[in-house]
Amino acid sequence: MATTRLDRRRVARVALDLLNETGLDGLTLRAIAKELDVKAPALYWHFKDKQALLDEMATEMVRGAAADLAGTPDADWQTSVTTAMRALRRMLLRYRDGAKVYSGTYFTDTSYAAPVEAQLRRLTEAGFTTGAAARALMTAMSYTIGYVIEEQASGPRPGAAGAEGAAGAAGADGAGGEGYDLVARAERLKDYPLAAAAGEEMFRGYEDGFEAGLAAVVAGVGVTLLGPGARPV
User: pTM, whole model, 2 decimals?
Assistant: First the structure.
């Protein structure tokens, strides 16, 4: 049996490594306990259920990426938000089903607070009200998380390659592997030519697609949420 002391962060790290092998549906406390060489009941001292574990896993993801999520110091707000959302996407892609794990969880400490504070400060200094700054940041985050959920669902399914291997298996654009067969899709949609042609844009070139959508989100935020009298966007 394992003699190394168990703690929440160690369990979360092992769970994140195992996630790349099993995916979210296959991740169980029993499987994590086996990986740690302990009995499953030992984990219930730290996590009352799987959701509590997912909360800790999401928090551990943020702990490792907090500096990048803070954005670019001394940059304008557009650059800062864009840089942070790119970092968020990289963080989520590091793990199989990473965006699903992250979405809807509750952080177990304040690791997220410094990056959020930094982003909100840049936005308010640029002329956003506090409420508008919060809405702007939440809009960009929601776009990024949602995009990666779809990207990971429709892209290749990484196997037991480890954290970096899983990200690498998807490639820079998440295409290939077991992703959509666009030829078969086009054949099914032959009576709907525009929908058929859209497949290439929707299910290939995820990197370029993310950048195009993010640029649209940031531009839209500037138009709709930046108050009158603020510095020009």
Answer: 0.84
